């Protein structure tokens, strides 16, 4: 090790006095635990530089503060501790600290009918900030689902009716002939378009929250939509999925309203905003809807 004192440039005064909104590090790789799963999160951590004359902050202190989270369950007390470390290690320099973790949490999900299950990755982001006004923590998750267009379904039904009238011109129709016809390709002459869709749900946590409600948020969203994308699928599961889609025809507006109602029931939320994106197979562009409650 070098025996000489090391130059400390950050401790010098700057010739360009100016406070800075945010200084820190972005993209630190950190193994954490979230919703009982091991996750490698990408972490941004920083503070404001309110001392206009100070040259720099102490990056290493922020890095060490984030290390507290390694292999630990990510919850509100852990996040608060890191923010507190950031501020207490930057007294005189900084009035606010922020911590952001993003990654993908793998959750085991059962098949609809068969006894199978599989893993689904849910992108998440946790954003926390502490400043003179207090603490704000937000949890964001992305949920993938299928949406079948209700208008397209109605148009397809009309074509099926027309085909029926064509194939059975007599008013008196034979039951077994109709049954056979319903099981043939003529019986389903048109199909509605459906698309893989994404809901991005952003919750501001209520002040009494201890745990990050990752599972509660995802479960409530998937239940409200009724058509979450599946993992392991046998034909029985695929048939159940077809039924779920048929029973949950959705414009993007319908999906946004369903999710809004579901999120209003979550006691862990003091505010939220949400966005749904239907990657239309009808168009080369997306159908998008947004909603919020108590968000400012
Ligand atoms: N402030 C700042 N530091 C940087 C930057 N890029 C690299 N660093 C380095 O980050 C390292 C850690 O900084 P400090 O936390 O101040 O390190 P230290 O002085 O050994 O630690 P303390 O004694 O706790 O202050 C230093 O070697 C800096 O040169 C930058 O853009 N800004």
UniProtKB/TrEMBL annotation:
Site annotation May be catalytically important: residues: 149
The enzyme's E.C. designation: 3.5.4.16
Alphabetical list of Pfam families matching this protein: GCHY-1
One GO MF term attached to the UniProt entry: GTP cyclohydrolase I activity
Top-level division of the source organism's lineage: Bacteria
Gene3D superfamilies per UniProt: Urate Oxidase
Chemical reaction(s) catalysed: GTP + H2O = 7,8-dihydroneopterin 3'-triphosphate + formate + H(+)
Pathway: Cofactor biosynthesis; 7,8-dihydroneopterin triphosphate biosynthesis; 7,8-dihydroneopterin triphosphate from GTP: step 1/1
One Gene Ontology biological process: tetrahydrofolate biosynthetic process
Keywords for this protein: Hydrolase
UniProt function note: Converts GTP to 7,8-dihydroneopterin triphosphate.
Family note: Belongs to the GTP cyclohydrolase IV family.
Protein name, entry field: GTP cyclohydrolase FolE2
Organism: Ectopseudomonas toyotomiensis
């Amino acid at each position: 090790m070098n025996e000489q004192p090391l130059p400390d440039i950050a401790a010098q005064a700057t010739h360009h006095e100016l406070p800075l909104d945010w200084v820190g590090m972005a993209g630190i790789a950190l193994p954490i635990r979230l919703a009982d799963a091991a996750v490698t999160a990408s972490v941004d951590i920083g503070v404001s530089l309110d001392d206009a004359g100070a040259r720099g902050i102490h990056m290493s202190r922020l890095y060490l503060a984030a290390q507290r989270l390694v292999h630990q369950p990510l919850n509100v007390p852990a996040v608060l501790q890191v923010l507190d470390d950031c501020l207490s290690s930057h007294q005189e320099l900084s009035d606010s600290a922020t911590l952001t973790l993003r990654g993908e949490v793998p959750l085991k999900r059962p098949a609809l009918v068969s006894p199978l299950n599989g893993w689904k990755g849910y992108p998440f982001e946790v954003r926390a900030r502490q400043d003179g006004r207090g603490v704000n923590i937000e949890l964001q998750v992305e949920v993938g689902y299928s949406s079948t267009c209700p208008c397209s379904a109605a148009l397809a039904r009309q074509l099926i009716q027309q085909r029926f009238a064509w194939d059975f011109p007599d008013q008196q129709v034979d039951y077994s002939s109709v049954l056979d016809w319903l099981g043939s390709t003529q019986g389903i002459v048109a199909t509605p378009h459906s698309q893989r869709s994404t809901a991005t749900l952003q919750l501001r946590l209520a002040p009494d929250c201890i745990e990050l409600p990752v599972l509660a948020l995802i479960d409530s969203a998937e239940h409200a939509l009724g058509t979450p994308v599946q993992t392991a699928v046998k034909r029985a599961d695929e048939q159940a999925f077809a039924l779920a889609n048929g029973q949950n025809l959705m414009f993007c507006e319908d999906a946004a309203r369903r999710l809004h109602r579901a999120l209003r029931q979550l006691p862990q939320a003091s505010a939220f905003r949400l966005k749904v994106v239907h990657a239309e197979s009808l168009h080369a562009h997306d159908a998008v809807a947004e909603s919020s409650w108590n968000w400012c």
